[in-house]
Amino acid sequence: MMQILYFAWVRERIGLPREEVETSAATVSDLINELRAREARYDMAFADTSALRVALDQELSEFDASLKGVREVAFFPPMTGG
Amino acid sequence: MIRVQAMPFDPGGELNTFTASVAGAGAVVSFTGLVRDVSGGLTSMEIEHYPGMTEKALGAIRAEAMQRWDLAGALIVHRFGVLEAEEMIMMVATASCHRKDAFEAAEFLMDYLKSRAPFWKREVTRDGADWVASKTEDEDALKRW
Question: What is the interface size between A and B, counted as CB pairs within 8 Å?
């Protein structure tokens, strides 16, 4: 099982802060495709991945990164701290 | 030292404590970021973050600064939750034997935590609420380091 977390407008569009999913996706992009196929709200949230960032086990990563051994995936817009 | 908190902080008190902890450093630089009312109608600013990753990311940014400059210490305090206009969002402080190191490291910390630490700002105005968009110049600012 994999924990998926959503932040900021990604969380609002999907309507959940986190969920647990059963997936065999090999990469982040594969996982996004699985999620987009589920429901319109996921399809909308992930429509433009250039507006998104991903963290794997709390480290910033890339969409083509492998999910092997990853327990926590987070999707969010570019960060606006400071 | 890294702190992520909902509570307000006292920048003067923080700076005094930090300065006392780096006795003999010779140069201390600090920066404090405040909630800005850009549109003139801001009622509050909400800051969301990613508990766990936030502390890791700030720790990594601080460690990088400690390695690149000759620093006696570096402090990062960042708030989350609901803030009002003029409230203090965050501060950084750096201490060194050399003024240049302290200034540069403080700028580096600011540039990195703006677009590499998982915080998201949402502005609430009289007309509604919206997420603050990231700026390309914030990403560009990282290139000089």
Answer: 68
